[in-house]
Amino acid sequence: MAKLGELYRKLTKSDIMILEYMVSIIGKYEYIPVENFMRKFRKIWNQKEIVARIKKLNELGLIQKHANVEAYRLKSIGLDCVAIYMLVNNNIIKALGDPIGVGKESIIFNGLTPDGNIVAIKFYKIGRRSFRHVVKVRPYTTHIENDSWLIRSILAGKREKEALTVLNKCHIIGIPRLYGHALHTIVIEFIDGINLYKVYRIDNPLEIFNQIIDVVRNSYKCAKIIHGDLSEYNIMVQFDDVVKSYIIDWPQYVLANDPQAPDVLKKDIVQLARFFNRRFKLDIHPDRILENILT
């Protein structure tokens, strides 16, 4: 399979225009009839040129032809290319590197900003295989009536951008810096660390736990936001001269004024305490921590 960056470099502005059109009507069709492309672009290109561009995108694997009729649907990698174009065009990134992490709902690449800063570029990939998890921890997707996993991914990216924007305004230590956003994609600072679930030995695990709780507390009190799915899988630990902890993956956030907020906050703290108690043999009482945050 060709690398995403290599595929993107094969595209012209005209190719991007086709893909952008498909994004713009993503909620109306699963497969877009070829007649729609003809009507949309007839003032720019003739029929032969339109067909040639659609054929190219199909051969690159960015769109997919229906098995029985002349209609096409946008694939996830096609959405990726549109997002890259938007990020480059808005001077958020200038280069896309290699994948550095793959999860159930996203794939993360390294990249560079125009200023030369190393960043992490996360493309949400919410799909059928993760549907049970999506419904369980991402209730914001349940109002989507059609079966568009691309729309769910776009919504996840939008929500994480919203959360990080507010959190960054509060200058909370332990929250990654947001550089930008496009569709289902966010660009954040690169954290040279390791996911907490991969850590088995720490000199002072209670210190790490308290760092994370400080992020939870400050997010709640300053940004009025609760993570909503806090666990060892969305916490990163950076082992440098000073150990630092970061909370990542915020699209499932809940506002502090939500009626369910206390229960969500309690669930986050209980899950975190349970992990530290089990992994590092601590004796943390989540109820006391919850009371301290809420008062």
Automatic annotation (TrEMBL):
Entry keywords, A to Z: ATP-binding, Kinase, Magnesium, Metal-binding, Nucleotide-binding, Serine/threonine-protein kinase, Transferase
Biological process annotations from GO: maturation of SSU-rRNA
Catalytic reaction(s) noted: L-seryl-[protein] + ATP = O-phospho-L-seryl-[protein] + ADP + H(+); L-threonyl-[protein] + ATP = O-phospho-L-threonyl-[protein] + ADP + H(+)
Alphabetized SMART domains for the sequence: RIO
GO (cellular component) term, any one: cytosol
The keyword Plastid is annotated on this UniProt entry: no
GO molecular function: ATP binding; metal ion binding; protein serine/threonine kinase activity
Top EC category: transferase
Coiled coil ranges: none
Family matches, as Pfam families: RIO1
Residues annotated as domain RIO kinase: 68-295
EC number assigned by the record: 2.7.11.1
Family: Belongs to the protein kinase superfamily. RIO-type Ser/Thr kinase family.
Identification of the protein by name: non-specific serine/threonine protein kinase
Lineage, opening ranks: Archaea, Thermoproteota, Thermoprotei, Desulfurococcales, Desulfurococcaceae
